[in-house]
Write a structure and sequence with these properties.
Structural class: alpha+beta
CATH architecture of the largest domain: 2-Layer Sandwich
Helix content: 40-55%
Radius of gyration: 45 Å
Largest sheet: 5 strands, antiparallel
Number of helices: 11
Strand content: 15-25%
Number of strands: 12
Shape: rod-shaped
CATH class of the largest domain: Alpha Beta
Distance between the termini: 139 Å
CATH superfamily of the largest domain: Histidine kinase-like ATPase, C-terminal domain
Length: about 425
């Protein structure tokens, strides 16, 4: 090989070596940068993971807090004695608490997600105040309406409604809060009835006083007339009828005065078991005198006392009246059962006795008026006996419950506070 050729080859080798050296140095620089970038990326990734863990922890805490708040709010709704119904903008029920279920008779599962119109518009006169609020923006405050129970009876309620909106003011739906006021309405009716009866009683007392004196005089003259007639005189029958009519009028006036006057009684400890035992013996004698086929059953433990604070004479009047009414209801005979209980689960502080017959029973529409003065189901009744009975029992801070099944008989329960009540 010639000298120039060797020199050219050597020069070429030197150039290749320099190129390789330069390329290697550049590779090292880039590798170093990549390594630094990788380390930086790892640090960033670690920071991102830490931030994600922190956000996840915050999110879990927020969700737990929201769940706790939701549980708390649901507990409040379920513990309320007021019914709560919530609907969304389409009229679907979203909230229906326990009180709403008790008042309406619908289970929560029956109505939630259902259409409010389809569930609570079954009656043509049903007041859909919640839809008025949703569709017209008309909010109700302290209004009253009737909700129809699932079984078909009306339930008077007081209610208020409001629109539901989010934080931005967008409409979410509407809510109604309502409460059953059946007892309040019944008390209002009872108060009105009591006022009417009080006015009637005052008027009746005045009339009774005015009537009693002429009745007495008429009785005296009828007695004198009967004395002057011979025993075989046919006119004595007419006089006897006059005397009987005057006697009946006198009894009505006497009962009217008893009803219209305040009750005067002396309360003391009375053993109901002994009192009932004595009175039922008198009732037995009266049944035998009338010749009726009525069996009398004493259904209580005579050895166990049942002490109440009462006026024994007034209670005797009550028991006798109820027993004779029961006997008179059994025209074709039957059984008169008198029971006594010291306490019940529902009325733990009361002692109550019951008088049940197997007579003809009383129709529902008449049963509601049975204690009204002058209302009677008897042909010759005055309509004051049971009114006086109720007045005496209420004077003793007690109350009466009556149940009757037409054709099967009637049961009257009288509740009196126990001695320590």
């Amino acid at each position: 090989m010639s000298l120039p050729s060797r020199l050219d080859k050597k020069s070429h080798d030197v150039n290749m070596s320099e190129v390789l050296q330069k390329a290697f140095e550049e590779f090292q620089v880039r590798a170093e940068k990549l390594s630094q970038a990788y380390e930086a990326m790892q640090a960033d990734f670690k920071n991102v993971n830490l931030e994600l863990d922190r956000k996840n922890a915050e999110l879990a805490l927020s969700l737990r807090s929201q769940q706790e708040m939701q549980t708390y709010l649901n507990s409040i709704l379920e513990s309320m004695h007021n019914g709560v119904i919530g609907i969304d903008t389409s009229g679907k029920i979203t909230q229906f608490n326990r009180a709403a279920s008790e008042i309406t008779g619908y289970a929560t599962g029956e109505v939630v997600h259902g259409d409010y119109r389809n569930i609570f518009a079954a009656k043509p006169d049903q007041a859909l105040s919640l839809l008025d609020t949703l569709e017209k923006g008309k909010e109700h405050k302290r209004d009253e309406k009737v909700i129809w129970h699932k079984d078909g009876h009306p339930v008077p309620v007081s209610m208020q409604t409001a629109l539901l909106k989010d934080v931005d003011g967008a409409l979410l739906g509407a809510v109604e809060i309502f409460s059953d006021i059946s007892r309040i309405k019944a008390m209002e009716q009872e108060m009105q009835r009591t006022k009417r009866l009080a006015v009637l009683g005052e008027m009746a007392a005045t009339v009774a006083h005015e009537i009693r004196n002429p009745l007495g005089a008429m009785g005296v003259w009828a007695g004198l007339l009967e004395r002057d007639l011979e025993p075989e005189d046919q006119r004595r029958k007419t006089v006897n009828r006059i005397t009987e009519g005057l006697g009946r009028l006198n009894r009505i006036v006497s009962n009217l005065l008893v009803y219209s006057r305040p009750i005067r009684a002396s309360l003391r400890e009375v053993d109901l078991a002994l009192l009932l035992d004595e009175i039922i013996d008198f009732v037995q004698i009266e049944v035998e005198r009338l010749g009726q086929d009525v069996a009398i059953v004493k259904a209580w433990d005579k050895a166990s006392p049942a002490v109440v604070m009462a006026d024994p004479e007034k209670l005797q009047q009550v028991v006798m009246n109820l027993c004779l009414n029961a006997v008179q209801a059994m025209h074709d005979g039957g059984a008169l059962t008198v029971g006594l209980e010291r306490s019940t689960r529902e009325f733990a502080d009361y002692t109550h006795f019951s008088i049940a017959d197997t007579g003809s029973g009383i129709e529902k529409e008449k049963l509601e008026k049975i204690f009204d003065p002058f209302f009677t189901t008897k042909e010759n009744g005055t309509g004051l006996g049971l009114a006086i009975v109720k007045k005496i029992i209420e004077f003793h801070s007690g109350f009466i419950r009556i149940h009757s099944d037409v054709g099967n008989g009637t049961a009257v329960s009288v509740f009196l506070p126990g001695k320590n009540a």
